[in-house]
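FAQ
Q: What does a multi-component entry look like?
A: The components come first, one per line:
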Amino acid sequence: MAAAVPAARWARAAAALLLGCCGAALASGVQDQAEQFFKSGHTNNWAVLVCTSRFWFNYRHVANTLSVYRSVKRLGIPDSHIVLMLADDMACNPRNPKPATVFSHKNMELNVYGDDVEVDYRSYEVTVENFLRVLTGRIPPSTPRSKRLLSDDRSNILIYMTGHGGNGFLKFQDSEEITNVELADAFEQMWQKRRYNELLFIIDTCQGASMYERFYSPNIMALASSQVGEDSLSHQPDLGIGVHLMDRYTFYVLEFLEEIHPASQTNMNDLFQVCPKSLCVSTPGHRTDLFQRDPQNVLITDFFGSVRKVEITAETISLDPNLSAFESKPPKDELAAEPLKYAEQLPVAQIIHQCGDIAVLDSVFLWNSMEETSAHDMKKCKTILIDHFLNIYSYKFFKEIKLCVLYKIGEAGI
Amino acid sequence: MAAAAAAAAADEAEKARGRRAALSFAAIAVVLGLPLWWKTTETYRAALPYADIAALGELSFQLAVPVAVVFAPGSQPRDLPRLLPFRDTEEKETLLNSRTSIASRYEMVCRSTTAQEEAALGAATVQEADAALHQLQDASLGSLSLYVIPETSLLLPQGIGVYVGKHRSALVRAGQGLAALRARLQQVMQIMSFTTSSITAALSDRMPASQLGPDARRHFKSSLGYEITFSLLNPDPKSHAVHWDIEGAVSRYVQPFLDKLSFLANFSVDSQILYYAVLGVTPRFDKESSSFLLSAHSLPHVINPVEARLGSSAASLYPVLNFLLYVPERSHSPLYIQDKDGALVGTNAFHSPRWGGIMVYNVEGPAAPQASLPLRVDVDMVRVMEVFLAQLRLLFGVSREVQPPEVLLESPGNEGLADWELDRLLWARTVENVATVSTTLTSLAQLLDKIGNIVIKDDVASEVYRAVAAVQSAMAELAVGHLHSAFQASKEAVTSSERAFFDPSLLHLLYFPDDQKFAIYIPLFLPMAVPILLSLAKIFREAKQRKKEPTKTD
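Then the predicted structure of the entire assembly, as tokens:
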């Protein structure tokens, strides 16, 4: 009995010590996480996603690119930082039995076309010349901002290309090709002008490894779906749509990326293991000799996501509100123009007052406490709401709102 | 017999004529044809100053700062080397790497005070003295004035040895002797102009990354223009009707700051209000303080969900700085930000390098529980602008580095930027611009050299010439100490070199491997070349035979 008690106390002490160590390790882990943010040295992320083949039977290449687009957007890179080039329109193709969709899994499980796709270069605009112009920045001055790669020396860029390729070239639009030498030269020009901090190049074509053989600029990591002499195979056909939906390599990469979230610590070594020969039939390859950091220390979110570095603002500038600088500047002579007013987008306060307690949560309406509102006011609410939302909101919202409003009004017996 | 001889002679004449014809064909093909083909298939390349560009690859900066050291009566140290007034120079050379070096030169003109300056130094407070002295100087951009006052002077508070004012002057106590005074003067001159580390940070492109601190990555690179956007995020318009006088605040507090920097770049300011914009992170409820907390490691995930709605992609091509003011929902009020150690952040704000800043503005609950929602909230713009201006300064690279003891730096007040801070910025930016131009031009020259079939148009060549001339003039002005014209020239050089490098016509024609070149030319040239070559071969063989025959018949 006496011997058991000290043993129990020892056990408790040991457990407490262990817990304390774990806690300290966790806290320092969080600290390390915060410090590691500055290790990678980048402050923003860009992505250039290119699908180079057209025609309906190359559906899988468009689906490949859209899956990567989807993952990249989900992990945080905004549309303004993504240059998406699709050589053909599969979603609205007359041969598509399910219009406005592009599926990546058979039995139509996952629609990668979604609601919010912004294609920057479409159809015949996807040419070798435009692609090289985007990379090197030699763009005509009239190009809109969404079609430019406005990266700087602290940008990490992800470049994903898919299509039909061969030993040393990649076919664009079935009529021209880009060679690995040109690609290497374009990357060198990007490096000379410091248009990237680190670059991840992924290619899913036949003999894809030949495309990264000629790179010679620093800070480039490259992955390919197959070695020279091997073909990259497609994954599974869907009998309803009638074509192969995805390529194997990108299919398994998509499955891998679905498990990544913005705070995950998965590193590049895991990405290298994706799709072994047993699943992919071809042997994926990678090249890291030009990259300065160890792939072990490179997070997936360094390229696929957009985790911002933040610093706490510790100082302020003291301002004196009594000093008015208005008088010091002479008033500018302006033409007597009618003052422009910003149109009332949505008189929310007014509607709320009239329609009771409405809270808008992500385009779904919940109506509470309608008892006090008279039938006349309800009708007025309905008109106001529908008018406003017809005029202001996009189609996506209108569909859901109209259904909801009509349902609720029906419920209330008007 | 004679007929046979005549036939043989006619034959011979025929053969000779045939030989001459073949030879003339070959001669025309080689002498006229080859040069004509070469000339008509070459690409137009205007001449570029390759030698000058190669010389730009090695940068040795010479930075000269004109300093006026003014001794007030009773402050001259006894062991001054010479009698006032005199000139002195302090030089320092640093070799950063094999291609870059910095030589800094402080040209000091030491003199004693004039009567007006003495009167100014007799002012009651040090701020008034600074303002009065500013009226007396005509300090140009980049120059400094240091006033040495007696050690026992009461103008400066106790324990403070150096006071740096809002303009380009500083007051320095005389110290215990010449050596102490020199050390103090050196310190002040470095604070007010540049240090080796600030210049190294500006040259980040040429330095290996390991030598840089996080400061170098935080501020925006030199650009010709910036777009500043102020956004008010109201996720709960049902509870808060937020009003902010952003126009007044911008014209009162931000515009003076931007006016001072207008020489640096073009600025455009806009503002917007976003409703129903939530942060991507759910804050934690803290029971002890009954408030909501955002911890430091969840802050990086706050920005992304909001960024898509900020509309910065529709803005101009210039870099965009976003400043967001977030008014938390009624159900999540009050909201505080925690730093790494768990302490609450005083400013309740954070910023992201090269992006902008976010501040959380807490609103008190309604006074009476039955108060009608939405509550009218009038944002206190002074408090908000204090934080935003601090963040703006940090993002531009104007930061007060660790203040050494005994030095008092005057706050810039409503102008937002002290004159000497502007000088510091200009020194760094000029050096950065010159380094950028050097890299751009050398890589352009390398590219054009390597790829022989890029067309170089005349206007590209003229931009390159202009850039080279401007950068040479910038280096010359830096060596003399004219910061204003040096910066102007460096800005011109950057504009021209960027225009030349990013000219859309410089896309190299598609890569032609050698076997493709053969495949194109052989069908054109082979049918023409074969008869000429064969007949030349025949002529050559016959000539060799004739040379051998005379020896045989003998």
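Q: Is there any commentary attached?
A: Sometimes. For this entry: Chain A touches chain B through 66 residues (CB under 8 Å).
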